[in-house]
Specification:
Structural class: mainly alpha
Strand content: under 5%
Number of strands: 0
Helix content: over 70%
Largest sheet: none
Radius of gyration: 20 Å
Shape: flat
Order of helices and strands: HHHHHHHHHHH
């Protein structure tokens, strides 16, 4: 009886530690967007069908992500769905509290405006809540490993297949794009750029993506297998990763009405400029996650 109780307390401690990390992650990763005026305005006036689609897209993203970096190790899809639901709830509650505390949400606002602002901000906050476990739990985990003891919140090193690598790049690109896609600067930069600027940005994006993962020896960087030509990783991972960043950028721009009423050239330029931070986010996700 005593052993069972101890085990139950241990599991509860692990779970609530994951919740605390989730709240910290939601605040850490979403705070820049919570303090961005464009995000407040978008929550009020953006098309509700586009907002609903973004909320629906976020659900499977969180479920798959929770299987890798959830609040605790998951072995079934039911557990992953549970963790994804908790992350979404933490994102909603955190955003509501911060927006109220900062005076962005007021009593005289309509329910339409309040729900829109919270729902939009909850997307990056929920991703941050999910990432909080992997990013804010590493130090204690490492200490436990060095001490030779049992890890009280293990983040297992899992083999990631090709599709998994592409998924992680999509998550990283989406998360970083959500920070900058709503801003007016994306449109302004697209008008300032020439085709030569666009080519330079594309080349820089590819170089940064490849360098982050394979050339700069960051923690979590990938090594090529012996005998593998250097161009193999570029063609297999970097180019598809950049294409994913471009597609995510186009989706974010469309969601936030940044492609409305502008020409096709400006749309293409805006996608190119937004894909630069998207590419960095994609590369960083492969290192971190």
């Amino acid at each position: 009886m005593s052993i069972a109780t101890t085990r139950e307390d241990f599991e509860n401690r692990k779970f609530f530690a994951g919740i605390a990390r989730g709240i910290a992650g939601a605040l850490l990763f979403a705070l820049p967007m919570l303090m961005t005026m464009e995000m407040w305005q978008l929550g009020v006036y953006m098309d509700r069908s586009r907002l609903l689609l973004l909320l629906l897209v976020n659900i499977p993203l969180l479920i798959i992500l929770s299987d890798r970096v959830g609040f605790e190790e998951t072995s079934t899809w039911r557990q992953a769905i549970r963790d994804a639901s908790i992350a979404y709830a933490l994102g909603i509650v955190s955003c509501a509290l911060i927006l109220v505390a900062m005076g962005v949400i007021k009593q005289d606002q309509s329910a339409h405006e309040i729900i829109g602002m919270i729902a939009l901000q909850a997307v990056p906050a929920s991703i941050g809540a999910m990432l909080g476990r992997s990013q804010l739990g590493g130090q204690s985990d490492n200490r436990n490993d060095e001490a030779g003891g049992n890890d009280d919140d293990p983040v297992h090193e899992r083999e990631t297949g090709y599709a998994g690598e592409l998924f992680l790049m999509a998550v990283g690109a989406l998360f970083l794009n959500l920070n900058v896609a709503p801003t007016e600067e994306m449109i302004l930069l697209s008008y300032k750029m020439t085709p030569w600027h666009a080519l330079v940005i594309i080349a820089a994006s590819l170089a940064v993506m490849h360098g982050f993962v394979y050339a700069l020896s960051f923690r979590g960087s990938h090594d090529l297998a012996e005998g593998t030509p250097s161009w193999h990783a570029f063609v297999r991972f970097t180019l598809p990763g950049y294409l994913i960043a471009c597609l995510i950028s186009a989706y974010c721009l469309w969601t936030f009405h940044r492609t409305d009423d502008i020409g096709s050239t400006q749309i293409l330029m805006t996608i190119v400029i937004l894909s630069f931070p998207g590419a960095i986010g994609a590369a960083a996700a492969r290192l971190i996650l």
